[in-house]
């Protein structure tokens, strides 16, 4: 549009001023505008990219059906695995971690990264042929934090953890995020690690990493478990209680903990995370270490024997089932269970 105005102005003014005298003015003005416009456009794109999320989710299948699956794409539009393609570390210093939110705070649906499904979408756990919901144990409602996993980690079931004496549970390492914001399923949060609790679940080590969203107002004040007690009084005690009793309404015994249920330090937690990251690197890069229980397809780990092309990843999403038999969510899901510990 500017070029059209410039040409019209050029014709009009050249009649008055003469072609030779006006030509340099017109040429400089158009070039200057073009450069300025490009600079402004680039700045605008940069600002837009800063605001764009790095990942998005795509739901397939009907909610409350076994077909429901939440797939992930990166900001280039490529379908990815949240377990294998999202980096563990969110900064070069390796002090901030990416967390994939599976279960938002105060919800009951037991959602988790599906280990057996190619590209590992989030799906609802199924127990005895029914969708699984976690019981409400008084005074709690559903999960009492945002719950999820650290990508690119694996609790190796062939490794006996020296500090607990138990093998790994064959899952990515779990995270509880204690910030004020209720996250959304599929959110990828940047978190600071504060500590860890070691749940012993049916003879397996099931680490629960305690973390906080780096954008939380209290994030700069909490750096270790002692700070959690100071700024979130009662939360660590409530967390241990929650994990002890949450399976009791389903007829299972009280869960047990290593270290008498005491939370370990941030330094201890980061060492455990680093170890599980090394286990994952072995899992993703060596087929003889892999297990049929874990789908390892990915698009970003070029040394992996399981890496696939972007087109194949897109095909997996396209072929994921839609619809599905929707289960009625009975009102007993909202029942409050009053548990008395021995």
Automatic annotation (TrEMBL):
<keyword id="KW-0479">Metal-binding</keyword>
<dbReference type="InterPro" id="IPR008162">
    <property type="entry name" value="Pyrophosphatase"/>
</dbReference>
<dbReference type="InterPro" id="IPR036649">
    <property type="entry name" value="Pyrophosphatase_sf"/>
</dbReference>
<keyword id="KW-0460">Magnesium</keyword>
<dbReference type="Pfam" id="PF00719">
    <property type="entry name" value="Pyrophosphatase"/>
</dbReference>
<dbReference type="GO" id="GO:0000287">
    <property type="term" value="F:magnesium ion binding"/>
</dbReference>
<keyword id="KW-0378">Hydrolase</keyword>
<protein>
    <recommendedName>
        <fullName>Inorganic pyrophosphatase</fullName>
        <ecNumber>3.6.1.1</ecNumber>
    </recommendedName>
</protein>
<keyword id="KW-0963">Cytoplasm</keyword>
<dbReference type="GO" id="GO:0004427">
    <property type="term" value="F:inorganic diphosphate phosphatase activity"/>
</dbReference>
<comment type="similarity">
    <text>Belongs to the PPase family.</text>
</comment>
<dbReference type="GO" id="GO:0005737">
    <property type="term" value="C:cytoplasm"/>
</dbReference>
<dbReference type="GO" id="GO:0006796">
    <property type="term" value="P:phosphate-containing compound metabolic process"/>
</dbReference>
């Amino acid at each position: 549009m500017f070029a059209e105005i410039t040409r019209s102005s050029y014709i009009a003014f050249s009649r008055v001023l003469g072609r030779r005298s006006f030509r340099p003015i017109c040429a400089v003005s158009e070039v200057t505008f073009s450069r300025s416009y490009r600079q402004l456009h680039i700045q605008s794109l940069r600002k837009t990219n800063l605001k764009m999320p790095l990942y998005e989710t795509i739901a397939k299948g009907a909610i409350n059906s076994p077909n429901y699956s939440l797939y992930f794409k990166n900001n280039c539009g490529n379908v990815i695995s949240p377990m294998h393609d999202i980096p563990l570390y969110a900064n070069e210093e390796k002090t901030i971690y990416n967390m994939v939110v599976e279960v938002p705070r105060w919800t009951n649906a037991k959602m988790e990264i599906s280990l057996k499904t190619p590209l590992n979408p989030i799906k609802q756990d199924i127990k005895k042929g029914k969708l699984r919901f976690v019981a409400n144990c008084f005074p709690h409602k559903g999960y009492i934090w945002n719950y999820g996993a650290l990508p690119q980690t694996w609790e190796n079931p062939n490794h006996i953890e020296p500090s607990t004496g138990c093998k790994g549970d064959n899952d990515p390492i779990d995270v509880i995020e204690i910030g004020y914001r209720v996250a959304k399923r599929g959110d990828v949060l940047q978190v600071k690690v504060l500590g860890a609790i070691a749940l012993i679940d049916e003879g397996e080590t099931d680490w629960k990493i305690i973390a906080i969203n780096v954008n939380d107002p209290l994030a700069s004040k909490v750096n270790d478990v002692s700070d959690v007690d100071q700024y979130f009084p009662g939360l660590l005690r409530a967390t241990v209680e929650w994990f002890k009793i949450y399976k009791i309404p389903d007829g299972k015994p009280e869960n047990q903990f290593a270290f008498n249920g005491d939370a370990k330090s941030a330094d201890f937690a980061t060492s455990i995370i680093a170890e599980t990251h090394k286990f994952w690197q072995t899992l993703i890069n060596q087929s003889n270490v892999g297990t049929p229980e874990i789908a390892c397809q990915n698009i970003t780990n070029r040394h992996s024997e399981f890496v696939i092309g972007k087109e194949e990843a897109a095909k997996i999403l396209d072929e994921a089932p839609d619809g599905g038999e929707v289960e009625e969510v009975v009102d007993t899901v909202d029942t409050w269970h009053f548990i008395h510990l021995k």
